[in-house]
Amino acid sequence: MTARDPxxxxxxxxxQQVAAGAVGRLASHRASPRHTLPLRVGxxxxxxxLVQTRAxxxxxxxxxxxxxxxxxxxxxxxxxxxxxxxxxxxADIGGKGLFSKEIHEALAEGRIDFAVHSxxxxxxxxxxxxxxxxxxxxxxxxxxxxxxxxxxxxxxGHPLDSLPEGALVGCSSTRRQAQLSAMRPDLxxxxxxxxxxTRLDKLASGVCDxxxxxxxxxxxxxxxxxxxxxxAPDIMVPAAGQGIVxxxxxESDAELRELLSAIEDPVARAVSTAERALLAELDGSCRTxxxxxxxxxxxxxxxxxxxxxxxxxxxxxxxxxVSGPARDARRLGTELGHSLRADSPADIFADVEPx
Length: 355
Ligand SMILES: NCc1[nH]cc(CCC(=O)O)c1CC(=O)O
Fold this sequence. Notes:
By secondary structure, this protein is an alpha/beta fold. It folds into three domains: 36-137 and 244-264, 3-Layer(aba) Sandwich (D-Maltodextrin-Binding Protein, domain 2); 143-230, D-Maltodextrin-Binding Protein, domain 2 (3-Layer(aba) Sandwich), CATH 3.40.190; 265-344, 2-Layer Sandwich (Double Stranded RNA Binding Domain), CATH 3.30.160. Helix content is 34%, strand content 20%. A hairpin with a 5-residue loop joins strand 11 (290-296) and strand 12 (302-310). The radius of gyration is 21 Å and the shape is globular. The ligand NCc1[nH]cc(CCC(=O)O)c1CC(=O)O is lined by residues 118, 120-121, 213-214, 216-217, 242-243.
């Protein structure tokens, strides 16, 4: 396992054969009902989702230029429940897979051939017949704090010192809220949803003093300079899968699975396997604040996973770390999840009625 992306010019013969073979088979399936070119890629329609999808297609065609030459892709934008319900907190809408249900349906019904997701928004148990075929190299996993105009990041001291006593933080994630509250019980929270630009606009209009966003999203949108304070994972444990883009396909689609697995990033696969196993084992309600963040050591052989479970108001917060061989990523995640759950109050995992 290595942290470097395979470069096109050092593609192994084996990978070149995979690419050529898969494309040949895809092309020759032109007339078959199972595969016709162009391949239809499903995505949400948000600016971030579209940037991620186009970056993925670029990655795929760099590996397999003939696909680009064939004009092989057609983008299908799919509106999800999460996109429609912008007035409510995701945790209050309830259910998992809010950003993926309609996309899974399109894939299962054969209206699209593969779909690009933020792994953070992809539920750990996919519907039967669908698989996560590819994980792309992780963008930064950390969360960033964005301050309203007039507040300045501290030069030294604690990163949250720039927030005045009682500051109002626009935050729609229970994980972020719980960790902020545990550090700063004086902070107050309000709902701030919508896509990245909408949230930044609301902040600029003065509805709150600060908000939190994934640095990965800001970076992909070319807005990294809006991140006033980047919070290290030991201050704010990121969400499982944050910063990783994943691609789903039908399990039965051997050609696409093979092609996509050839371009996946093995580091992203290992860390996301650990993080998602942790999440699955904790099996929290959609409100439960859960964090999971894995890293590989420079050799790529050893994996360290940080897990966090908390109560939304920050009155309970448990963090724990495990390390072990990267090849045991899933087991490490499951074990850490089990141990965190065993030592947390049961009410944290209960699916309470929305308030
Ligand atoms: N549903 C929100 C969502 N899903 C993925 C990202 C950021 C990009 C990523 O984590 O890869 C975001 C926005 C945010 O949390 O700031």
